[in-house]
Design goal:
Layout: E1 2-5, H1 13-25, E2 29-31, H2 38-48, E3 51-53, E4 64-67, H3 74-82, E5 86-89, H4 93-107, E6 111-115, H5 121-127, E7 134-137, E8 151-156, H6 162-175, E9 178-181, H7 187-202, E10 205-209, H8 215-227, E11 231-234, E12 250-255, H9 261-273
Parallel strand pairs: 1-12, 2-3, 2-4, 4-5, 6-7, 6-8, 8-9, 10-11, 10-12
Helix pairs in contact: 4-5, 7-8
């Protein structure tokens, strides 16, 4: 059986930057999980004493706080700045951009459509910078029955599919007089999604490695499943089953943007052992 890694996969720029910061800072607390990968978070805690808090209210006697890659809300940031604690911002620059755009467009009188998952921490953070009205949607159908204003600005969660974003934009352009469109989908997301599309078309089994709570990892899995029925999403090598690979000729592997190389290597080695 051929084992082939996607042309683009794994750690993106923002995650690499956040991990490096956490390793250098040490003995700190992150507000929410730094990245969406439990294994890597566990490594940071054991090796660098970087612990994870769920909320700002969980802070006790910590001296250093790291803002997660997905960012936090504008209100939480203001609250954090009131505390006697050193703040290190590991928000991915690709996430900071839509925050800034939402703030600016609101000031100019635009209401804002955010293409993304309302419960995702990145989207919660971006939405908090809208001072007019924000519409968070995953599909254009959610806007069909609404009375929309004359001026709309559109941004996207960084890990969404560009084709779906374009559908939403086309719908708005036919319905709203003035639409300002900002393509805030991350370049790494484009490359990873294009690579898994190509790989899954020629594979008879696909393994996607990454956090099951990671939006970009789940997106890779859905794309793979579309072209290769036998596609599996796993977090670690322990979830691999030998029976999956029976009579398979070509195994494709990709990984989410928060998946470290050491986990991917363990997965590849175990598949080779099969």
């Amino acid at each position: 059986m051929i084992i082939e890694l996607a042309k683009n996969y794994g750690f993106c720029f923002g995650v690499k930057r956040a991990i490096k910061k956490a390793e250098q800072i040490k003995d700190a607390a992150t507000i929410g999980p730094l990245i969406h990968n439990n294994e890597e978070i566990s490594r940071l805690q054991k090796k660098f004493n970087v612990k994870t808090l769920q909320n700002i209210t969980d802070l006790t006697n910590e001296k250093k706080a790291i803002i997660r890659t997905h960012g936090i809300t504008k209100q939480d940031l203001a609250e954090l700045q009131k505390k006697n604690i050193e703040i290190f911002d590991a928000t991915c620059p690709f996430v900071t951009k839509p925050q800034q755009l939402c703030e600016q467009m609101s000031k100019e009188g635009y209401e804002v459509v955010i293409f993304g998952d309302e419960n995702h921490p990145e989207v919660k953070g971006v939405k908090s910078y809208v001072s007019t009205k924000a519409y968070v949607v995953l599909d254009k159908s959610e806007l069909e029955d609404l009375k929309l204003p004359h001026k709309i600005a559109v941004v996207s969660q960084t890990t969404k599919k560009v084709e779906q974003f374009m559908e939403l934009v086309n719908f708005l352009m036919l319905k709203v007089k003035e639409v300002r469109v900002f393509n805030t989908i991350c370049d790494a997301t484009f490359k990873n999604q294009a690579a898994i599309t190509e790989l899954s078309k020629k594979s008879d089994i696909i393994i996607i490695v990454g956090g099951k709570n990671s939006a970009n990892t789940k997106q890779l899995f859905l794309i793979a499943k579309n072209y290769c029925e036998d596609s599996y999403l796993i977090e670690t090598q322990d979830e691999l089953e030998k029976s999956w690979f029976k009579d398979k000729k070509h195994c494709g592997i990709s990984a989410g943007a928060s998946t470290p190389d050491w986990i991917i290597k363990e997965v590849v080695d175990k598949i080779k052992a099969f």
